């Protein structure tokens, strides 16, 4: 088969590579769409710690073309999305059903080959059926479940006001889940005029352009000095990771979905906000719960199929498999504004 193979830091070669027949508990997926995650660009340019050569891609969907002898609940032809997380099922947290906290997990697209290829073999337990869902939408189930994991566990209340820092893909998906959960007003914060316009189109009543406006002053104005009930950080920036603490009301909640790629040093005012306001701070990692893969995944599938989530307009670019390096260069060098970038290994 053809695959986009990572050989070293930011060096992807489009090449022929062998693929085995399925093992007894595996299925072979013909990959129809695979998303580039923000973590992919960071891992492959600075922190890649897995065996090389590698095939990245943990957000992907396609259909089954082969199955192992022990696979009984799936059939050739089934349309599926990959569940990239491989819990050990033995550690303390797996035993509690807290799979996102597994201490010895594996990851498709890291320790094992992922979706930037024409085909991939994965355990049958790591697929979810998607019915007649569009493959591009199915490839976005993983980030949609990540956003839902945060929203479910921060427990928004009907009528809340929320601030979402970062109007990228995770931020936009978080905004949609907050609307569904009954949050009354959502304030989107970003440094991109284009992303803020998209946030307005997604239903945000108010936006703040952080490059030109004072975030604290604007939220203070919008909330009449009270602060927001919820602040969700989806940008992964030290600046916004601190600002969340400053804009949340007394007894409010702060949720961190964005990954920290550098040290976060808090000002005195930000740190004092934690205890003077008695804030609740919570981090959200991955998207899994019991029974595996959890409510996050099953709800995401249901809401996509029932057309209650908008995904297509978040897709900005589609690249052929042979152009995977070009896709990463575009993102890393910020050659163009982008949303969700997809690799299309096979045509329907």
What profile does the largest beta sheet have? 7 strands, mixed
Number of helices: 11
At the third CATH level, what is the topology name of the largest domain?
Quinone Oxidoreductase, Chain A, domain 1
Instruction: Give a count of the beta strands, DSSP E runs of length 2 or more.
Output: 17
As for the number of domains, it is 2
* CATH A-level architecture of the largest domain: Alpha-Beta Complex
Enzyme class: oxidoreductase
Organism: Priestia aryabhattai (Bacillus aryabhattai)
EC number: 1.1.1.14
Keywords: Metal-binding, Oxidoreductase, Zinc
Give an overview of the whole structure.
The chain has 348 residues and is α/β, with parallel strands linked by helices. It has 2 domains: 2-140 and 311-344, Medium-chain alcohol dehydrogenases, catalytic domain (Quinone Oxidoreductase, Chain A, domain 1, Alpha-Beta Complex); 144-283, NAD(P)-binding Rossmann-like Domain (Rossmann fold, 3-Layer(aba) Sandwich), CATH 3.40.50. The protein has helices spanning 38-47, 92-95, 135-138, 141-154, 169-180, 193-201, 215-222, 238-247, 268-276, 295-305, 324-332; strands spanning 2-8, 11-16, 26-36, 59-67, 79-82, 85-86, 106-107, 119-123, 127-129, 161-165, 185-190, 206-209, 228-233, 248-256, 280-283, 315-320, 340-344. The strands form 4 sheets. Strands 3, 4, 5, 8, 9, 16 and 17 form a 7-stranded mixed sheet that branches. It has a 6-stranded parallel sheet with strand order 12-11-10-13-14-15, sandwiched between helices. A two-stranded antiparallel sheet has the order 1-2. The chain is globular and about 60 Å long. The mean pLDDT is 96. Its cofactor is Zn(2+). This is L-iditol 2-dehydrogenase. Belongs to the zinc-containing alcohol dehydrogenase family. Keywords: Metal-binding, Oxidoreductase, Zinc.
């Amino acid at each position: 088969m053809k695959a986009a193979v990572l050989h070293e830091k930011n060096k992807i070669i489009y090449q022929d590579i062998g693929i085995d027949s399925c093992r007894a508990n595996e299925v072979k997926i013909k990959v129809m769409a695979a998303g580039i995650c923000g973590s992919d660009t960071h891992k492959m340019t600075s922190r890649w710690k897995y065996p090389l050569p590698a095939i990245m891609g943990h957000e992907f969907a396609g259909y089954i073309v082969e199955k192992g002898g022990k696979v009984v609940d799936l059939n050739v032809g089934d349309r599926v999305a990959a569940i990239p997380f491989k819990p050990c099922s033995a550690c303390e947290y797996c035993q509690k059903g807290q799979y996102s906290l597994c201490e010895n997990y594996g990851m498709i697209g890291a320790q094992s080959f992922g979706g930037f290829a024409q085909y991939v073999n994965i355990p049958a337990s790591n697929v979810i059926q998607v019915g007649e869902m569009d493959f591009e939408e199915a490839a976005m189930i993983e980030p949609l479940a990540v956003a839902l994991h945060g929203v479910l566990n921060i427990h928004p209340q009907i009528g809340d006001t929320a601030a979402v820092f970062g109007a990228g893909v995770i931020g936009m998906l978080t905004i949609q889940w907050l609307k569904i959960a009954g949050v009354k007003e959502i304030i989107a914060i970003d440094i991109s005029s284009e992303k803020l316009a998209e946030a307005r189109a997604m239903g945000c009543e108010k936006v703040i352009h952080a490059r030109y406006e004072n975030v604290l002053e604007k939220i203070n104005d919008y909330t009449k000095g009270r602060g927001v009930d919820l602040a969700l950080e989806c940008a992964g920036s030290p600046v916004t990771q601190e600002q969340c603490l400053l804009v949340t009301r007394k007894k409010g909640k702060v949720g961190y979905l964005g990954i920290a790629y550098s040290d976060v040093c808090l000002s005195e005012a930000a740190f004092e906000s934690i205890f003077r306001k008695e804030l609740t701070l919570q981090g959200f990692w991955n998207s899994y719960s019991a029974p595996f893969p959890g409510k996050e995944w099953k709800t995401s599938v249901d809401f996509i199929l029932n057309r209650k989530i908008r995904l297509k307009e978040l897709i900005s670019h589609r690249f052929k498999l042979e152009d995977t390096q070009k896709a990463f260069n575009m993102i890393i060098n910020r050659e163009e504004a982008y949303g969700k970038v997809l690799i299309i290994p096979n045509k329907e």
